[in-house]
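Review form for a predicted model. The reviewer records the input and the model, then writes brief findings.
Reviewer: anonymous (R2)
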Amino acid sequence: MSNTLTKNKTSTKEGYKKTKLGWIPEEWETKILGEFFEFKNGLNKEKEFFGYGTPIINYMDVNKKGSLMLDDINGKVSLSESEIQRFNIKKGDVFFTRTSETIDEIAYSTVLVEDVKDGVFSGFVLRARPRKLGELDINFTKYCFSTYIARKEIMSKSTFTTRALTNGRFLSEVNLLIPPLPEQHKIAKILSTWDKAIALQDRLIKQKQTLKKGLMQVLLTGKQRFPEFIDEWEEVRLGDVCEIKRGAGSQYITYVDESDSNSIRLIRITDFLSKDSKYILRTKDTERFLLEEGDLLIAGTGATAGITFEVPREFNGLVFSYNAPRIRVIKKVKKGFLIYYLKSDIILRQQLGLFTGNAQPFLDTKAIKRFKILIPKLEEQQKIASVLSNFDIEIKKLMTQIKR
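Model under review:
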């Protein structure tokens, strides 16, 4: 008897109905995209036709953007009148990316929210044109394809060999949750309000970052000082106040999994900050190349050459690479002050004249030791670092609010 009651209790839900996509409000429907859209592949042209002519929606215009306006379309292509007609775009069209490196990034979408005269779309994207106007709110289509359920449907209807692929036939079979049109309007309005708030937050973050950059320029050069400090600054070479040392002989950092002493991991130096702390370093025969909290690493080669990293606590005992020299403060300078100095344009300008190498830039330890830095007394260094650190804390808080 109790089993029957339990079954009946869970098989109904007041105000909802059960569908292939789960429980949904009674007024909502599940429909396949093919009922709403006609799909078409974009055009392909030789590279000499690009760079001038009519606007063209490309892969990067679509990828991870909710909506498109004329100003968002950067590409140009030279076409005949018949090609423009065959691959035309209009307000309300939805575009999907056709391919990606991974299945979870396939078929990102965007909706065109204004007409673009003579605009066309690339063969790397699919155009979904509404069969009938007014069935889907244009602003609702900015969001409805990025929900968990929609993304799950899209991925299940795609293929993967060496790359993830989709096409109009696959997308036509994707099931979508469709609320009544008035509810679509309300949902889109609420989400649009959040988008505007996020955009304002982004603008505030950029303003803070710009202000911090300007403040670094004047504080780290002594052009602007705190009234309580009057001592002159001293120019020193980085090698005079820090120990700068090359590490072990490869561009890799070696880790061992604590749960499996035979599991060795080789991690590229540029990836080390994102690694899980469950990996620790095999330290046998590497005593000369161990990092401590408070050390800095500077990338010595490649695209990241000259960029400075601070070593976090969880990487105590890490063996540093030959291609990422260690910087360890020994006298006259506070680490916090030095970090900001090494990340400033002051040092970046010096680096440009010190890079060597043909295929890729390279900074040797002799060049790093020659970096010129202006240093005040330790107390003033601490005050400067504290002010800049407070900016970093504010920026981090703003970024955290966006992620919520």
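Findings: The first helix runs from residue 2 to 10.
Further findings: Residues 1-9, 251-284 have pLDDT under 50 and may be disordered.
Recommendation: see findings above.
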